[in-house]
Design brief:
about 200 residues, mainly alpha, 8 helices, about 60% helix
Length: about 200
């Protein structure tokens, strides 16, 4: 294969998102309009999720911000024995939504999306919508209640139903920040006509 053809293939793959850096966070994480301008695919994915599952874009954005800061290949930190020997990651959470292996498998089975990937924004937002919709159905949590949706997402539905989060003041504070960010994002999205 000649060098020009090889170069053309590499450039084509890179332009489709296969190149390095495609998982980096947007520049201004505090501005929903800037995020959706910089990454229009995010807005398309979240709109599709809102249509399918009824979860507002601002709630999705706030949860993704908390889980991964919009980094597509985010993982939990490594754990170390004796402070120096790596013994694996804190959990199997991965991708934009930080979905755990078991919950992701449940999503793939229930939706039939066997090719879905946690590092694909469309699949990650659909997963979040699926999970939050299920929390609404099973626990009666409003789809607009970003804090409670986040607590159910973080603790699992059984943990939420049992109130496990109540003993975790740090988690309650995080849920409050998710709620405040969702409200901020909603106002911003309305102001730039993307709500």
């Amino acid at each position: 294969m000649n060098n020009y053809l090889k170069l053309a293939i590499v450039m084509l793959v890179a332009s489709c998102g296969g190149g390095g850096g495609s998982f980096k966070a947007p520049r201004d994480l505090d501005n929903a309009c800037a995020i959706t301008s910089e990454r229009p695919a995010y807005l398309r994915a979240m709109r599709d999720t809102q249509r399918r599952w009824g979860i507002p874009i601002a709630v999705q954005m706030a949860a993704i911000h908390q889980e991964s800061k919009f980094i597509g290949d985010a993982r939990t930190p490594h754990q170390y024995a004796l402070g120096i020997i790596p013994i694996g990651r804190q959990s199997s959470a991965f991708g934009y939504s930080q979905a755990l292996d078991g919950t992701w498998e449940e999503y793939l089975t229930e939706t039939g999306k066997r090719r879905a990937r946690r590092d694909d924004i469309r699949d990650a937002t659909d997963f979040m919508g699926w999970y939050m919709h299920g929390s609404t159905q099973r626990l009666g949590i409003s789809k607009q209640d970003a804090a409670s949706q986040y607590l159910a997402y973080h603790e699992g539905r059984t943990g939420f139903a049992n109130g496990s989060y109540r003993a975790k003041s740090w988690l309650m504070a995080v849920a409050g920040r998710v709620q405040a960010r969702a409200e901020m994002y909603q106002v911003q999205l309305i102001s730039c006509g993307r709500a």
